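=== Structural record ===
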Amino acid sequence: MNFEVSVILPVFNAESYVAKAIESVLQQAEVEEVIVVNDGSTDGSLAIIKEFQNIDERIKVFHHKNKQNKGRSETRNLGIQKATSNFIAFLDADDFYLKNRFTNDQLKFEEDHSVEGVYNAIGAHFYKESSLVEKQRLQLTTVSNAIVSEDLFKTLLSGSFGYFSIDGLTVKQSVFNKTGLFNSALVVTEDTDLIWKMALKCILVPGLIEQPVAMRGVHDDNVFNNQELYEEYNLKLFESIAFWSTKNNIKIKNIERIIEKVWILKSRQTHSILKKISYWFYLTVNMTSTLFTYLTVKYFPLVRYRKTLFSFMYKQAE
């Protein structure tokens, strides 16, 4: 299998950054095509993209129907559907690749043909004044230890060794047959959702995890600055993974790890036992494959919170 890469580049009002992003992709010899999906931009982004398209035929530009704004998930999904190469990589329009972005990835895929994805570290390029704390926090986004593929999901879920960004990931196009595309119901955390699904179903291996292969653009308009939005969608992320897992033959131990996280988050939202029971029914209806397993009983609220609800009984027993 020839190592040729389609890079998916979603663009929405990124006129200040998109030229640098495109230039960084075009300098990579392994890139067969740059799938630019314009997500209804209203600034000068499209004009800049067309200038590059006139110079390099590898750039292919797509739009949603009626040039609508559809958001990050549907924009990346359109790019995946239009890609023709055997390998897929991603780059946000305000980020950029470093030189030799794919050199080591190619070696990893050629060394072991069973490998379905390679993840790498990314750094940060600051377009704004930032505190020393923020610079240190974003200096290197990576998984700090080499993790065997079988343990990658639980490692990412725990966060014990960090995490990796989609800008640092290269996968075989066939991966999406196993995971599906980005979940368009998630306004944010959609990249984490897909990465975790890949970790559950595919063979992902570390590439360059001690030095960056790409740089994240840090500026005032970054969506990751919106903590309230991420908090709103954090539970939806875990629900998405839980529901998908029960339909995709994921090991029950991993499903339990997900459900545990779901209940931790849900407990922070409500203290009413009736609301928790109602939520338990909601989960059960959407996770029918776990209905006759120990998980149904273990996470039933009257069982899970029995020591709090019936504390007097436990005190008597003591």
Remarks:
- The radius of gyration is 22 Å.
- The longest strand covers residues 31-38.
- The longest helix spans residues 227-246.
- The mean pLDDT is 92.
